[in-house]
Design brief:
By secondary structure, the chain is mostly helical. It has ten helices and no strands. It has one domain. The protein starts with a helix and ends with a helix. It comes from Cherax quadricarinatus (Australian red claw crayfish).
């Protein structure tokens, strides 16, 4: 959202910031481990390589969203174009990495020993392609921010569902985080939409 405003030239109402903040805080409270909090209280090192990699991942994800915003606004890029080009670049990068590291030969040897893995990889690829199709469709039609909210809350519901199905208990902090997430989602669905008048003004300015 922040990089979308800075680089993607997007604008949001103050309500939108509040609702997204509620969702982010709720997810963080739900998944944050008590061991981390205990380490912080005793003066232990909390930020490590994992946190740095996560921060880099979030930054790259934000840059991707900002670039997508510009592409959609300026070039009217469609979901199929983004999906095709992203996968073409991914194939190129991965092909180079496989050759440089020699992992391609390891894979060929593994596939020869266990040929049934090829059918599983085909099914996985089809499911992945279908998932990507809907993700890019949402990005092109609604923008990167709603797509990010959906994917983030999907992960939250996955964890929450596993907790409910397997009978794991939630701590008071996790219940508060759950309330934050549902509150943010509900408020965003009801009050977070961009007013029609604002949309018309933005459309008129582009024309």
């Amino acid at each position: 959202m922040v990089l979308g405003v800075i680089l993607g030239r997007k604008s949001y109402t103050w309500k939108k910031y509040v609702f997204i903040f509620l969702i982010v805080v709720g997810v963080a409270m739900f998944i944050y481990k008590d061991s981390k909090a205990a380490a912080a209280s005793t003066g232990g090192v909390v930020i490590g390589l994992g946190e740095v990699l996560l921060l880099l991942s979030l930054t790259m994800d934000g840059l991707t969203g900002a670039v997508q915003e510009r592409m959609i606004a300026e070039s009217k890029t469609k979901s199929g174009h983004m999906m095709l080009n992203m996968n073409l670049f991914s194939i190129g990068y991965l092909a180079i990495a496989l050759l440089v590291t020699g992992e391609i030969f390891t894979f060929v040897s593994f596939a020869q020993r266990y040929p049934e893995v090829l059918a599983k990889m085909l099914i996985f690829s089809i499911c992945s392609a279908l998932g990507q199709f809907f993700i890019f469709l949402m990005v092109s039609d609604f923008g990167p921010l709603p797509c990010s909210v959906v994917t983030t809350t999907r992960k939250f519901f996955t964890v929450l569902g596993s907790v409910i199905l397997f009978g794991n208990t939630l701590s008071p902090r996790q219940w508060v985080g759950t309330a934050f997430v549902f509150s943010g989602l509900t408020l965003d669905a009801v009050y977070g939409k961009t007013p029609k008048k604002v949309l018309e003004e933005v459309k008129a300015s582009k024309e």
